[in-house]
Structures are given as C-alpha cells and as structure tokens.
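Sequence in, structure out.
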Amino acid sequence: MKILIAVAPEKYRDEELSEPVAAFQKAGIDFDIASTRRGPCTGMLGAKTIAALSFDDIDPKKYDGIVIVGGTGSQAHLWDDEMLPPIIKMFHQSGKVIAAICLAPVVLARAGILKGKKATYFESPVAFREMKAGGAMITNAPVVKDGRIITANGPAASKAFAEAIVQALTAVEW
C-alpha cells in the first residue's frame, strides 16, 4: 500500500505533514512526497522535507490515495496549480482515498470533487467562498469523511485526520 502526499514548496503546516507521516509509518503504509517542484520544502514552523517528485512525475495508478497538506503555502502554491486538479480527478474516478487538511480542501473544491459532499476546512473568507463555489456542504467538525473523501479543519485536527486516513486505507470493505 502506498499513498501520495502533496505539499507546498514553502509554508506547508508542519504537523499536518508530520502527523500523517508518523501514522503511515506506524501502519506500514509507504508514501511519496510530491510538490510543485522536486527538492527541499519548508514548513511554516521551520520543519523541512524533501519532495522526491514534482506533480509532473506522478502516476496516480501507483498510489492508493492522496493527502494534500495545508498551511498558507497551500493557498499560495497549490490552489492554482494546473497539475493537481487532473491528478485529484483521476484518484476520485478510481475510488481512491482523497484527503485534504486546513486550507487544502479548496484544491478539492476547485477540482470539482466536493459538489454535494460534506467537507470542512480552515476558516477564512476566501476559503469559504471557494468551498461554496465548489459545491461543498460545509460541516463544522474537525474531521469530516464523506465516502472516500476526508477533510480536516487545521493543525489541531492533524492526528485525528491521520487516523481517519489510515482507517480508510486499511478498512476491509464488504
């Protein structure tokens, strides 16, 4: 089992990456980190990670799901990225797990996969407009799961968000 983690090249929210990574390692789930470009990425609180892949390099068939990390960098670098929406749509059409936290659920809204779906996000006026424009049914909860789509509202929900992803990836579906 393998999951793709998408981060902004700068100003991603540190714990929104570190908590899922820790949960995936504990559960034995392999992962790759990707960004708008390969190389070093820096968190808002100073954490560092390496994006082994750029979004151009991604083959969605190799992954069981995608996690999009939030933070102010997601608004600056991921909301308008041209490569991410088609990747998200491919994951969605294949019934794979799609998860986004903080400001990153806007990427899902812009990709068109939140129409009529329950979702949450980090509250900001611009994010609210984007979520509504994407047709999301906004729910005021830390973590929201609607089918194979998981959203969370920010750093405080990182651990529960990570647990929900692991559960969705490892659940036996009858």
